[in-house]
Design brief:
This protein is α/β, with parallel strands linked by helices. The chain has three domains: 188 residues, 3-Layer(bba) Sandwich (FAD/NAD(P)-binding domain), CATH 3.50.50.60; 165 residues, Guanine Nucleotide Dissociation Inhibitor, domain 2 (2-Layer Sandwich); 104 residues, no CATH class. The chain is 34% helix and 15% strand. The protein contains 17 helices and 16 strands. The strands form five sheets. Strands 9-2-1-10-16 form a five-stranded parallel beta sheet, with helices on one face. It has a five-stranded antiparallel beta sheet with strand order 12-13-14-11-15, sandwiched between helices. A two-stranded antiparallel ribbon has the order 3-4. Strand 1, helix 1 and strand 2 form a beta-alpha-beta unit. Helix 7 packs across helix 10. The two termini are 34 Å apart.
């Protein structure tokens, strides 16, 4: 039977785009369908506050994109992608007016602590083995020589951040820096696997840094789109798919959606057991985000914070741990851990001359619509006195706003599902391949598959790889 396309991809986030490119490169005819008017999922930039102030709507800092084994295969610089780096990957201020920084140099990072040798003893061996770690753990679980070479990372990564930090660092500032990294997991810091996120982010910082994208994250989506079109891929926008019956005929379908949307669109095609597994899939904490147009850069007391695009605001390990635990327990923290991003300290193209943009978010219970504006701004003001005087305008998004913006952000969960021990390698269901569904020609390629959330395209690559092997007998290497 003649089909309209070899492959149809539903959803144009970074994983959907990556999958479309990989399939098109393999010689397939590919159609990418996006429900909104813009391609990119969370990779959007817009004038959210005032004219001339360009804000990243969702993702803004891109360590995983800069280190992506997928994106490095595409000539994205040719299509306008430019990463920009601040002096420090991240900064972490304290109430005494000091700060510590995560730097490219392991030595310079370690020398800030009272126990520099313990930091180096933990990080250096892992850093020297980073390529094996990346291959073994940033993707589906597969037995290979890289997995055995990365066994030390597996041991540390499985630990709760509370255990690893308290047992490896005697310096409270080193513990706090680690807590800020681990809090990106959107889990309480006493949960297993929270060290994994912290270690990966720190290792990438020491390797590639934590860059922002010149003129906004939209430029990465634009570059991926332009490259896909250049190699013959087709794109359709403003077509929100709510039923699989809306799709043109094809040999395979890949969905860059989470289990909730997958069930709604294609549930009739799945076995009862697979549908049951998808229904049991767990989503994690949500986020509350503020974008600001500023008259000047945030006046942080610690000078290091003025030179880092990313600032982790939470003071001590215990304070961050308490904030995340409170949120996990279903309440909003009065002193939330805040991730603050200030791209215009290095990228003047995002704001009128002399002006700045910044954004921050904190974690909130999934589905919460409680306003965290005052709590977040109090936390920023705590380490940057006078910050509120710099605000020209603000734009806020609660969990409902996030889900309305992108249905994949269920309850405000920007990671595509909880990153707990049972959902690391088995997301979204326990199967020989997490990218296969129970329907022969239907695959899932979203952040609800390994390795999970983040702008890296790895989920899309492995889903495309699996479908090429199953349906077209084309083999691609593991990353």
């Amino acid at each position: 039977m003649k089909t309209d396309f070899d492959a149809v991809i539903v959803g144009s986030g970074p994983n959907g785009l990556a999958a479309a490119i990989v399939l098109q490169q393999a010689g397939l005819s590919v159609l990418l369908i996006e429900g909104k008017s813009k391609i990119g999922g969370g990779l959007h930039s817009a004038e959210l506050t005032l004219p001339g102030f360009i804000h990243d709507v969702c993702s803004a800092v891109h360590p995983l994109a800069a280190d992506s084994a997928v994106f490095e295969k595409f000539p994205l610089e040719k299509y306008g992608l430019e990463f920009m780096h601040s002096a420090f990957a991240a900064a972490h201020p304290f109430d005494d007016g000091t700060a510590v920084t995560l730097e490219t140099s392991i030595e310079r990072t370690a020398q800030q602590f009272k126990d520099p040798e313990t930091y180096k003893q933990l990080i250096k061996p892992l850093f020297n083995n980073w390529q094996n770690i990346r291959s073994a753990f940033l993707g589906p679980l597969h037995i290979s020589k890289n997995l055995f070479k990365a066994a030390s990372f597996a041991y540390h990564a499985a630990l709760p951040a509370s255990h690893l930090a308290k047992n490896n660092f005697t310096d409270v500032k080193a513990q706090a820096l680690f807590a800020g990294m681990a809090a990106h997991s959107m889990l309480p810091l006493n949960k297993l696997t929270t060290s994994a996120i912290a270690l990966i982010l720190m290792l990438i910082a020491h390797d590639k840094g934590w860059p922002v994208i010149k003129s906004g994250s939209q430029k990465l989506a634009d570059a991926l789109t332009a490259y896909l079109i250049s190699i013959g891929g087709k794109i359709e926008i403003n077509n929100m798919i709510t039923s699989i019956k809306q799709l043109p005929s094809s040999k395979i379908i890949l969905f860059d959606v989470t289990p909730k949307q997958l069930l709604q669109i294609a549930g009739e095609k799945f076995s009862n057991f697979y549908a049951w597994q998808l229904k049991r899939y767990k989503y994690g904490m949500g986020v509350f985000k503020i974008d600001w147009a500023l008259s000047q850069a945030a006046p942080f007391t610690a000078q290091q914070c003025r030179k880092a695009t990313t600032v982790h605001i939470g003071n001590s390990f215990n304070e961050i741990m308490q904030s995340e635990q409170t949120t996990w327990n279903g309440k909003c923290s009065l002193e939330p851990f805040v991730i603050f991003v200030q791209p215009t300290i290095i990228d003047a193209s995002r704001a009128p001359a002399g002006k700045h943009v910044a954004w921050a978010y904190c974690h909130v219970p999934n589905g919460s619509v409680e306003s965290m504006t005052d709590a977040i701004e109090k936390q920023v003001e705590r380490f940057a006195p006078g910050f509120r005087d710099c605000i020209l305008a603000r734009h806020v998004m609660n969990t409902s706003d996030f889900e309305n913006y992108d249905p994949n952000y269920v309850g405000g969960d920007i990671n595509g599902g909880m990153f707990n021990l049972t959902q690391i390698f088995t997301r979204p269901a326990l199967r020989l391949s997490p990218y296969r569904t129970s329907a022969k020609n239907i695959y899932i390629c979203s952040s609800s598959t390994p390795p999970g959330g983040g702008v890296h395209g790895i989920c899309g690559y492995y889903a495309a790889r699996q479908s090429l092997k199953d349906i077209f007998k084309i083999s691609l290497p593991a990353l």
